[in-house]
Amino acid sequence: MLDIGISKLMLVAGIALVVIGPERLPKVARMAGTLLGRAQRYVADVKAEVNRSMELDELNKVRREFETAARDVGQSVSSSLDSATGQINAALSGPGSTGTDDDGAPTYEPYEWDSSPAVPTYVHPRKKWRVKRGAIPQWYKQREGVRRHVQSGAARVARFRPPRRSV
User: Fold this and answer.
1) Is the dihedral of CA 61, 65, 66, 70 positive or negative?
2) What digits encode the pLDDT tens for the residues 29-88?
3) Please, what is the end-to-end C-alpha distance for the chain in angstroms?
4) What's the longest Cα–Cα distance across the chain?
5) pTM to 2 decimals?
């Protein structure tokens, strides 16, 4: 790294004061500060992008591992289910595969399981909001000042306008 101490900074500041001049030195220092800030923000953005890409790669790796594990579990479950279904079908079919066996007892056909789950359907709750609203007695609505009819703004103003006095 750069080995810059206080003495070297003072030397650079003195040379800048002589070369640039005291009038333009504050503008140059401000410009150098803004450029340094931009460079630091750019470096921070690049670091953040690299970190995000590394995390994304790690997440993709974990996702792939999880998918393969889930696929393996699914295959093992389906294979064990198939073998159990085959054993049950073989036990049910017995020595004679159709009709009756040697003793005259009926044999059973292998049962095909329906693996598709029943999909629930949406049932509307059918709320009776009109009935509930109409259940409030008229005398209560009138006492509490609940509006029972739609009325325009002009009609409402005309309704509550004080009567005119004739002189």
Assistant:
1) positive
2) 899 899 999 999 999 999 999 999 999 999 999 999 999 999 999 999 999 999 999 888
3) 100
4) 121
5) 0.37
